[in-house]
Amino acid sequence: MQGSDRQGARRTLSSRVSDALRAQIEAGYYAPGDKLPTEPALIDRFGFSRTVIREAIAALRADGLVESRQGAGVFVIGPRQTDPALKLFTSETDKISDIIEELELRIAIEVEAAGLAAARSSPAQEAEILAQVDNFASLVAQGGSTAEADFHFHMAIATATNNARFRTFLEHVGRRMIPRVKFRTVMGGVDPLPSRDEPILREHREIADAILARDPERAREAMRRHLVTGIKRYRSLTSWRPNQKSDGQG
């Protein structure tokens, strides 16, 4: 549990950094095209470790606010666009049906991503997919939050397609593509579903095994089962109300 506590504390610190920088970007202190301060400068400014600063920048990058340019630094793209089409996944919602619809759309994208990853992934990309499965398993064993590890697993597969548009799509969706994150918001902080970390871990392992076996069709089917199972979990709760007693943990 000590390792889990340290990870949680680091996430809290990185959130403080990312929230501060996000507020400055949205307020116009940093304009589109501006370069953010260097990593050492941010370490000096906030007084946190290099790991914390890097995680904060990664969060801003996932939210589409900044981009990293190799050898040049981190540059501001700008505050999130107000075009409603760009808020497809990130806007607030009060409906479980929205989560189900998002999962259905993800099937169209991520099933093919898994197949392409099985056909095209490099050894280094395969190692990263396995590392994310192992990280998820470690968090399950520690009783820690797995939402971030879940996100990184899907991002590792998108990267392994070697088609940058898959990764860009998931980066736009952001961490709220993980239904549990959005679901707790929808349900007012209450999650009536029993813990599903163990079945999700098994599903992730099936997907990873198929990719490492270089079997595109098996990888597609494993990803489809994973996402369809998620739809079934949430569809079973369409009639649930917050005043009902929870029968499980998040």
Descriptive key words:
250 residues; mainly alpha; Arc Repressor Mutant, subunit A; Four Helix Bundle (Hemerythrin (Met), subunit A); two-stranded antiparallel sheet; disordered C terminus
Range of helix content: 55-70%
* Low-pLDDT ranges: 1-5, 241-250
Query: From the coordinates shown, what is the CATH architecture of the largest domain?
Result: Up-down Bundle
Enumerate how many helices there are, as a single number.
Answer: 10
CATH C-level class of the largest domain:
Mainly Alpha
Q: Strands across the major sheet, in which order?
A: 1-2
CATH topology label of the largest domain: Four Helix Bundle (Hemerythrin (Met), subunit A)
Overall structural class, as computed from helix and strand content, comes to mainly alpha
Rounded to an integer in angstroms, the radius of gyration calculated over CA atoms is: 19 Å
Share of β-strand residues: under 5%
Count of β-strands? 2
When the domains are counted, the total is: 2
| Distance between the amino and carboxyl termini | 17 Å
Quote the average pLDDT.
81
* H-E order: HHHEEHHHHHHH
Shape call: globular
Largest sheet: 2 strands, antiparallel
The CATH superfamily label of the largest domain reads GntR ligand-binding domain-like
